[in-house]
Structures are given as structure tokens and as C-alpha cells.
Design brief:
- This protein has about 90 residues and is mainly alpha-helical.
- The chain has a domain of about 60 residues.
- About 60% of the residues lie in helices and about 0% in strands.
């Protein structure tokens, strides 16, 4: 039996990984143009609000936190803001 002979539902078919069972939108490492526009605007607004320079370490950390939350399924702007504010307060 070759690699192309695997059939879905057969006893020999590979089982889907747990990650494959989750919402594919939260697992994707790619973003739609509308998502990128939202994330950029949100990031830019937060940088302005917090007085962060675009290329600073703090701005890079903020960007990473935003992407991580977004990939975890936090898509609402207010929810993102609340979680990021909580994370910032926990650091201080």
C-alpha cells in the first residue's frame, strides 16, 4: 500500500491531530488583507496611546502580544484591549 492509498475512514488512515480539529481561523499563520488592516490600525492606535516608537522593543513586544491573542481567537477590539491592558498591568 503506497502513501497515496490512504483512505479517509479506513482503519489505516492517519488520525487528525488535535490542532486540526480546532477552528482553522485560529490556527492559520496567514491573515486576510482585512485582518492585516485591522491589526495594523489597532497596533498603530495602541502605540500612539502608549507613546511607543514603531521600531522599539516595547512596540515589537506589543505586536507579538496582539498577534498571539488574535491567533488564539481574540478578535474583538475591546477584548484585545482589555487583555493587553491586563498584561501590561501585570508586568508593572
Amino acid at each position: 500500500m503506497g502513501a497515496g492509498d490512504w483512505k479517509t475512514g479506513s482503519a489505516f488512515a492517519p488520525m487528525p491531530m488535535e490542532a486540526e480539529k480546532m477552528n482553522p481561523a485560529t490556527l492559520s499563520n496567514t491573515f486576510e488583507p482585512s485582518e492585516l488592516a485591522f491589526l495594523k490600525r489597532f497596533f498603530d492606535d495602541l502605540c500612539t496611546e502608549r507613546g511607543l516608537a514603531g521600531g522599539s522593543l516595547a512596540a515589537n513586544d506589543l505586536a507579538a502580544q496582539i498577534i498571539q491573542l488574535y491567533q488564539q481567537g481574540v478578535r474583538d477590539e475591546k477584548d484585545l484591549q482589555i487583555r493587553l491592558d491586563s498584561a501590561m498591568l501585570a508586568k508593572n
